[in-house]
Specification:
By secondary structure, the chain is an all-alpha fold. It has a domain at about 25-75. The chain is built from two helices and no strands. It has helices at about 20-50, 55-75. Helix 1 packs antiparallel against helix 2. The longest helix is centred in the middle third of the chain and has 27 residues, at about 20-50. The two termini are about 20 Å apart.
Length: about 80
């Protein structure tokens, strides 16, 4: 591994979670996706007077959260234990 210096364009106030919290972060993304898409599905159900969109949106939210967590694990910055 090489120690890369952060780009000058990157903000200094961004907190990147350490690799030890990666499992907890996965669950956070999945639960967040379920909640967000659940609210979207519930709103569409009320707007369109249906009863099935909420149940279709919940697994979509779980999948979106899962893929977002994987994306962040692959493309996130390395934790250099720097003081921020």
């Amino acid at each position: 591994m090489t120690n890369k210096k952060p780009d000058s364009n990157e903000p200094h106030h961004v907190v990147v979670p350490s690799k030890s919290n990666a499992g907890k972060l996965d669950y956070t993304y999945i639960i967040g996706g379920i909640l967000l898409w659940g609210l979207i599905g519930w709103g569409l159900d009320n707007l369109l007077h249906t009863a099935w969109i909420l149940f279709a949106a919940l697994p979509v939210g779980a999948l979106c959260g899962y893929f977002l967590a994987r994306h962040h694990q692959r493309h996130g910055r390395l934790d250099d234990n720097k003081q921020q």
